[in-house]
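== Polypeptide entry ==
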Amino acid sequence: MTKVVALRCLLIAFASALLFLVYKQGFGGALFYDDYGNLEGLSKITDLHSAMAFTFDGFAGPLGRPIALASFALQANGWPDNSPGLLLVNTLIHFVNTLLIGALGYLCVRVSSHCSVNQAFFAAFGAAILWAGLPLLASTSLIAIQRMTGLAALFSLLGLVGFVWSYRLYSVSPVRALFVQFFLLGLGTLLAMFSKENGALTPLFALAIDILVRKQALGARAHWTHKARLAVLFLALAVFLVYLSPLMRNYFWVSDVRGYSVWQRLQIEQVILWEYLKAFFAPVPSLFGPFHDDYPRTPNPLHAIGAAVGWLMVLSAAIWLHVTGRTRWPLFALLWFLFGHLLESTSIQLELYFEHRNYLPVYGICLALAFGVASVPMAYRRLAILVFGLFVLLQWAVLLSVTTMWGQPIKAANVWAAERPASSRAVTHAVFLELSGAQDTVADLNYQHIRRQRYEYTLSLLDRTIEHCPGCVSVQLQAVGYACKLNRYEEARQRLKSTVSFAAGAEKPRSVVDGLFGLRELIQNEACGDLNGEDLLSLINALSGSQLFKINHISTRIYFLAAAVAEDLGRDTERDRYLLEAEAASPVALPVLQYQVSAALAADDHSSALSAIERRYPFVEENTGVMTKAVLDELKADLLEERESNNDSQRQANE
């Protein structure tokens, strides 16, 4: 027995070391889009107060995700050059999750049947080693911000391990067992939710375990506690179904931000779920990467119908296998997978495709496969183990290929941009890394030539994306800028004209706004030939028909920019009109108010400045942002004091 335990420990240690070595290849990877957006506050952490502000001011989700942000706050030193350290912690979390996955699998198998300890260990270890090495999950550890997913999974798994472990207490005290089960499950769920909101799905995983994995060998089936447990878990499922149903949201309203309705998203997502399974069962390195923003946003009716029929057939087959007593594991795997995708792949208007969404959902498939192999009759078990082992080996080989690629940022960026030419994020990432690499050669005597070559290469990347996605306005704006930097002024003008023609369909709000501000800077510095503010205003006016102007904080920034451009052109009346538009879009935007006050004071119009302040008071009563009543009071007092001082000076001059 001691030798067997030692052998198991040796297997776990070897697998753990191998997992670390494989993921270590990716530690040199770059930071990505959401990393900068969510973690830029790390640079402002200097003491405990600023660390607390960063932790509790998160905006990545409705709950702010403070637990995940607190873990990043502990690594604030060196941001943004400390990505290897961030990815190391992510990998350690994945390692802990693998151990928890193994423990959960062992407990599930033990309560599901009368199989031996060796069979239970094989099934649990096989499922864990398969899950840990899935390339489909690599982005969870190799994108820094996806630590949120890993941490949420960690707390979910702790809650589920406690839930399954507590089954053994029913033989002693069913009431106590019920209390312990839900205390541990509830605690794990809450901690998971404050890491990432999809941790709320933890009770649904427990439901799948309770109705399909647990055997009635515990003797509690007839006891009221069993019915109470099921009732609570089914109630959790009902809450989710109502929350996601047409009762709570308009299924046919087209999102201004996403460009599709809930009904369209559901049609698309049922196809994407099959693509996730394809990536699981037939992994190819080119399938995996951080960029999927090029996924078609219009559902294909034939694909949608085919996917729906496929899900109905699979679900019917799984139910038939369970009802006829043949096996319940296919139904368990299917429900676990679907429960895990219930929030992010249904009616909530998120982006369409992300690999990390499969982090916990695919585990049910892994456990079902491993248990199936462990249950094969002895005559065929060696063959089954061989096939399963080859499948695991394939996953790990592809994972090694993926992590090695991620660990070479510039090469990876160029490959991703080439494989996904319609992805504006992929090409923007490649451009950013390519130009960042130029800093290594700034001391070279041929710097100007090298820089021009880099700009030429960057422009070729952008053009490749534009060819596949002519409506990617943010990419077209970048191309205008690089044409200016290459002194191709007529080309820049033609590119801007083309951009205007596609402006009504503009997406990617943040990227478009950044491009507009960058273009204004080039025009101000006279670095774009005869392009001027008039051209930029024409583009802004063309954009007014796009979905960007349906997003208040985006339209506010664009109107603010338009006001600044109008002032550059000496059109004060037009400037004031744009500022009023910005105010209407976001009355509590402090920079807009400051601009209005500054412009009014420059014209010696104190009454307009005071009027702009007074108009904000109705909006700041419940506002907890930068603009508060105290800020308005202070601004108003300063303005009144300045006006009184001016009046005194005027009276003295008259005397």
User: Anything to note?
Assistant: The first helix runs from residue 2 to 24. Residues 134 and 395 are 5 Å apart (CA to CA). The mean pLDDT is 87.
